[in-house]
Here is the input.
Amino acid sequence: MDSKERIAKALQIATDTKVFEMAPGASEMAPDIFKKLFPGRKAVIVADINTWPALGEKVYGMFLSAGIKTDKYIIDKKEFHAEWKYIEMVDKIIEGDYEAAKTIEDDENHIEADATKAFRPASDEYNVAVSVGSGVINDLCKLCSHHHGQSYLCVATAASVDGFSSFGASISYQNAKQTFSCPAPVAIIADIDVIAAAPKEMTAAGYADLAAKVPSGAEWMIADLFGTEPIIPPAWHVLQDFLDDLLSNPEGTASGDPKAVADLFEGLTLSGIAMQAAKSSRPASCCEHLFSHILDMTHFRYHGKLQSHGFQVSIGTLTMCAVFDELFKMDLTKLDPDACAAAWPTLKQEQERALKIFEGFPVPDLGYTEITKKYQDADEVRRQMALVKEVWPEFKKKLQGQVYSFEKMQDLFKKAGAPYDPSMIGVTREMLRDMFPKVQLMRFRYNVLDLAKRGGFYDELVGKVFASGGAWDLEKSKAII
Here is the structure.
């Protein structure tokens, strides 16, 4: 199946995106697509100081030449993340109140408004957002368009994330990284000439974000085994059937080869469409993304700079590949389900553990809230561990067919230009080890660490990753750059 066939098939299961155009020069199609989807409406080009010269100014000019009423708003920040402040700003942009938007943008001490009061009645008087940028601008336009009861047009400038086509927007609100439910754009335009010329670190970040679907897919298989989040076949097959091929040219990705970058962007888009089909980020993320969320929520910087989503996820992805490497060395046919159930803590004990682990964290009750949702009683743990014991030889083979080894993934990241050691984003191996308890607790999503907790081998499993000879051997902790 070639790229056109894969994209056509994906659009059949997409719930929100109806148009996906990807080709050299595809940005020239933007005015006609806008006219067909939003006849008679006014557009506002939303870009930043990097994406405006890269493509935004061109799109703005094409819209004006096509007779579309068009405004522009350029976010005047060298560095910004998808925080609620900017949601309030883009809400004002869609309403045409640019002065209020600028006031919010410039207010370093802005106090967040109530997220529940963000929705407005739909109206043809609003601007239709045309997002010209990468992940942050797209997420802002996505959620704010939803607030106004309408969709928007996404014109991508880099193959940096899978959020262009995803259902939901990942936004920091009240110190917590949260996924807000909102539809994906009705149309996505990917001009490969522009995307292939994007900064190499952005493309490398996108490669790492796509590679994250390898271990996260294995964790979905575990959740499916226990029935907590069954695999949704259309959402699985739309990307996982082609994932190996789309990751197969890391050197081309690093060099900006148009075909390799197009494959990468296609994979990221298919990932987002999988999330549309599932109405959840389950097809695209699990533990590997939670390491990134912890860094975001603690405002972690390296050399004074926030690290990109993809670069953070690259380290989480490598770490989870290492966890699976160690898991595969264990013989889970020797599990004692009765002993696992007898040792299983009560909900109150788990809640107390969560409060202790998250003490001093920006969201101290996060673990408590999520473990309360995720908790299962001892009888269910006994059933799950009996199932693992019974099916482990066959199930292990299936997992091994899904997950890359740490060594293979690290080699791919080296070739793609993505970080391949935590020190490359300023994270020590000790810091990484200490994140594990939070990662296991901070989402109700069932993961491989939950399996280890239930089986009574969590400490052994995590310990081996950081032990002598392990992937992140603490004795070899040193700067790579």
